[in-house]
Input
Amino acid sequence: MDSNNLLRQLLMIGVGTTSLVAEKLREVSDEWVRDGKLGPDQARNFVDDFMEQLKSEQGNFETQMQRQLRNMLQDLGVPRQNEMDELRGRLDRLERQVRDLENRLWR
Output
């Protein structure tokens, strides 16, 4: 499982959800204006304030999602990329040592 791909997919879902929330929020605020519950300036300010708060919280959400994903992968025993790189390096060194030993035996 590619953790970057999964994270990218989760973030795209978040972006899509944010867009949907923004669209619905605008629809509701337009309805409130039509019903006379809010003035146009109040509705615009309400939507702008809400979207600004949503944007600021989105950064926190992304950070939390990354942390949760890392924890989940760790709990599942999925090694990190640097651990895989280290193991590949160790494997390469061991293969070289085995070849060197085989070469010595055949001389």
Residues 39 and 90 are 68 Å apart (CA to CA). Residues 40-75 form the longest helix (36 residues). DSSP finds three helices and no strands in the chain.
